[in-house]
Amino acid sequence: MHFDHLFKIVLVGDSGVGKSNLLSRFTRNTFTTDEKSTIGVEFATRIVPMVDQKKIKAQIWDTAGQERYRAITNAYYRGALGAMLVYDVTKPNTFENIPRWLRELRDYANRDIVLILVGNKCDLVDQSLRQVTEEQARNLAAEYEFPFIETSAKSGVNVDEGFMQIITTIYENAFLSRAGEGDDASPGTVTVDGSNVARPAK
Fold first, then answer.
1. Which of 47, 92, 118, 194 maximizes the CB count within 10 A of its CB?
2. How far apart are CA 59 and CA 47, in angstroms?
3. Pairing mode, if any, of strands 195-198 and 189-192?
4. Distance CA 200, CA 52 (A)
5. Domains of the chain: total
6. How far apart are CA 189 and CA 83, in angstroms?
7. At what angle do helices 19-28 and 159-174 cross, to 10 degrees?
8. CA 32, CA 164: separation in Å to the nearest integer?
9. How far apart are CA 24 and CA 43, in angstroms?
């Protein structure tokens, strides 16, 4: 299928917070309760339209949260234009580790990467399982100056909204704000916040 631009987005966070299910919910609209831990890195794609009818191919990378795979995944941060920092609203330790994941992103990802804090598994909140309050998350997001959203990969709540917020922000920063400006990028690529992003072959 034709697309105009390719955006690489990574999911980061502890093992078990639901990154793989967020990926499958957004790209395939599926959810599984017996998801195995991701080994290394995997990705899936979805093409989404922008307000000006341009089509963005979102390439979503799911990085393993286990310590032993971190040496593998560091290389995959390079070239990422957006990242979801994901924690589980029922597991406070996954929220407390967000600053560590953010430091890793700062070390290996593009300096201008678009970030969003995602509290996953909000479908469990009604079962009195919440351990991280919205206020805590909003305070952390405000401290680092990026947006926050709660999602449920199981029910689908806010999953599209979270991904679209990142994709739209990348697109607006890179293209809409440059409308009318000359394109000095090399043929076949477009520069997005300092990174060359592949344009599809015509």
1. 118
2. 9
3. antiparallel
4. 18
5. 1
6. 21
7. 80
8. 22
9. 9
- pLDDT, the chain, mean: 84
Higher pLDDT, 26 or 125: 26
Q: The domain that contains 48 carries what CATH number?
A: 3.40.50.300
pLDDT at 199: 44
Distance CA 114, CA 83 (A): 6
Q: How far apart are CA 200 and CA 202, in angstroms?
A: 6
Altogether, the residues listed in the chain come to a count of 202
Neighbours of 20 (CB within 10 A): 23
| 51: its two tokens | 């307000």
Please give the model's pTM, rounded to 2 decimal places: 0.84
Contact (Cβ atoms closer than 8 angstroms) between residue 137 and residue 117: yes
Burial class (CB in 10 A: 0-12, 13-18, 19+), 74: middle
- The domain in which residue 31 lies consists of 5-198
